[in-house]
Fold:
Amino acid sequence: MALIVQKYGGTSVGNVERIRNVAQRVAKYKAQGHQVVVVLSAMSGETNRLIALAREMQSTPDPRELDVMISTGEQVTIALLAMALKDLGLKAKSYTGWQVPILTDNAYTKARIEDISDEKMRADLDDGYVLVVAGFQGVDGDGNITTLGRGGSDTTGVALAAALKADECQIYTDVDGVYTTDPRIVPEARKLKTITFEEMLEMASLGSKVLQIRSVEFAGKYKVKLRVLSSFEEEGDGTLITFEEDDNMEQAIISGIAFNRDEAKITVQGVPDKPGIAYQILGAVADANIEVDMIIQNISKDGKTDFSFTVNRNDFARTIDLLKDKVVPALGAQDLLGDTKICKVSIVGIGMRSHVGIASKMFRVLSEEGINIQMISTSEIKTSVVIDEKYMELAVRALHKAFDLDQPKG
Ligand code: ADP
Ligand code: ASP
Ligand code: MG
Structure:
């Protein structure tokens, strides 16, 4: 007998019929003698609908009330699945985040899980219940409802698996595993049998939304056995996230390509090139709780330099306002430029550690396609570039081909 946590995403619970299918799969695992905890997302589109509704009321919705509202989508699906399971003759019980409870900090809309009590759940599991837990939500120390950031049900799933020391956490979604890149952009993308935890962490942080990054962090920290599978197929092993590099396997140099259209670029032009400039610009941005991703500073000409960095598009307007008000006048900078039509394309692979020339191959491929690179950042296992958004698909396809990702490996 194993304890399995299964998380189903929005498309997988998109209507009553699909929820019945989920119930069938859960019943199959129960019939094999396993204990099952199910974590659900809201029906696909529901969280977006709720956010749009809140924005009709307030252009920047109050974060506490927004969380009260957007946590409701998951409350609907857990109740529906519990009903479907009961119809199949199983003992089932739905749990909202606060009923577990899943304790988080109080950072509304992007709260972090701090603690999960497993007592009630264990007692119910031992009693033969299937537990159906609402993903994406928790409760802070004062009893306020919180949510975990978009895609946060993945994190609920993995965190529950960690808390319950589950044998496996299965993430059921609308693709049958983790691919070399988003199969919706590159039809030739190949499903990976395994991907290392480190690579998955990079892929998720660089924009592959198949797993929320925090779920991968949790899996790493608590060594949760994590697998991504299709909820629409009966068979298939999906993709296993592994913690060791497989020495027996021919390791591809590049495992995958990620892309991200959520960033915007800001350039402060003509700032005096003297100590403290980066701090004056980025310190002000950090004080406003805005995360900065890539940064470049040009060499100076006539004692002046340009300073560029990227932020999330949601923070773009706020960052521009802040720089205009506080930083540009104080620095005596000449101009402030913004570009929201950029994207970041990244190649990821632990094989990059032991191979030189991978980044330069990436640059060559992009230059052959006539794509201008605006920014570059590298780490041991990834190289990212910022390019014009309109070339994103072209860049991803060209790189996917050039690095032979469409060819079976080994
Ligand atoms: P869910 O609602 O089940 O959480 P998501 O939409 O959050 O599903 O994540 C699944 C989607 O992630 C896929 O439909 C696919 O378009 C996208 N995706 C992006 N990169 C990848 C990748 N490398 N492998 C698989 N899917 C990817
Ligand atoms: N329903 C939430 C969202 O759409 C959480 C999730 O699906 O993981 O972001
Ligand atoms: Mg998701």
